[in-house]
Amino acid sequence: MSKGKTRKGQTVEEFEVQKALYAKGPVIQTSESLLERDFSAIYTKLDRMTLKAAAERAYYIGDYQRSLDLLNTKEARTKFGGKEAAELEYIRLAAQDKLSTSKSN
Description:
It is a single chain. By secondary structure, the protein is mostly helical. The protein has one domain. The protein has helices at 12-24, 33-36, 45-60, 64-71, 74-78, 82-104. The longest helix has 23 residues, at 82-104. The model has no long low-confidence stretch (mean pLDDT 84).
């Protein structure tokens, strides 16, 4: 008989974090809610993807400085790797280019 997969246990701390998130309820998204979030602490992949989406949103609506501010945070510089880091660097360079173009006009 083959041994089935066993579920990995959850620490008390992980449970408390999950319980606190459940107690807060779902996050209600608006067109500006991404830009209003606090990105001072990034713990999960969801947090990283939300930061990336906020930077993309700011760039899309033409708020290049806000996009740069989000991408120049310590969290954006250290928590991303590989393809994600390359995508953020592309957005960062494009926002810098747009800002320098708008300042020279």
